[in-house]
Each structure stands twice: as C-alpha cells, then as structure tokens.
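Structure (tokenized):
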C-alpha cells in the first residue's frame, strides 16, 4: 500500500516515514502543501497523511483541491496535525477525511494502527 505524507517538520516526517516503512508501507513525503499536492496527484496513493499547518499551501487547501479534482475524490485522508479539531477549519470533515489525529496525543503505534484500520488491515495486537 502506498502512502503520501505531507508534513513540514522534517524530523517528524522522517520518524513517521520510517515507522510506516517498517510496518510494510511504501511512503513518500513532501515538506509543503504545494509539493504535497503534486506528489499526491503523481502517486495516486492509497492514503494521504496530511498536516494542516503547512508552508506555501495549507493542508485544508490541499484537501479541497484533491476533492475538487477527478483524481483525488476517492483517496483516503488522515489529517495528522497539532491543531485541535475545535481549532481546525470548520468544514474540514465535509471534505471526506477518515480520521483526525492530533500529533501531540499520539502514543506508541497508534498512527500505524490508525493507518492499518483505514486501509482495512488488522492492527498489531497489543504487546506484539
């Protein structure tokens, strides 16, 4: 399964990419919204992990552009950000996201488990 990670924090992006690849996913990443949108269009991934606070083009603008295009309507998206959902753009869920995850609240393999659930794979049992 192919994942595009759109994350401007280089260190976090590297950590997430490594974890995803160790879990068996192909993961490509972009460091800003505009590059992310281009990468998503070129790769047509199974899933996009999308930060909202991004340079050049915000994550919600990336999501809106995806949903307005023929190629991006059905791509699954997990919003992965440090903005609480209460502070996120009011209509963010109207663009069809699978999950909204606050990065600061992530523990252990929670991201990998969420990705597996969204992609229809069983998460690892606790303690595995």
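Design, position by position:
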């Amino acid at each position: 399964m192919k994942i595009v990670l759109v994350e401007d924090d280089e260190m976090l992006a590297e950590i997430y990419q490594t974890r995803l690849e160790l879990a068996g996913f192909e993961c490509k990443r972009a460091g800003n919204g505009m590059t992310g949108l281009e990468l998503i269009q070129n790769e047509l991934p199974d899933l996009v992990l999308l930060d909202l606070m991004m340079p050049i083009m915000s994550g919600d603008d990336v999501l809106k552009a995806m949903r307005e295009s023929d190629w991006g309507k059905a791509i699954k998206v997990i919003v992965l950000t440090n903005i609480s959902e209460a502070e996120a753009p009011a209509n963010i869920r109207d663009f069809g996201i699978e999950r909204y995850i606050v990065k600061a609240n992530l523990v252990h393999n929670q991201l990998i488990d969420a990705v597996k659930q969204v992609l229809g794979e069983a998460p690892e049992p606790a303690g595995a």
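Reviewer-requested clarification: The chain has a mean pLDDT of 90. The first helix runs from residue 10 to 22.
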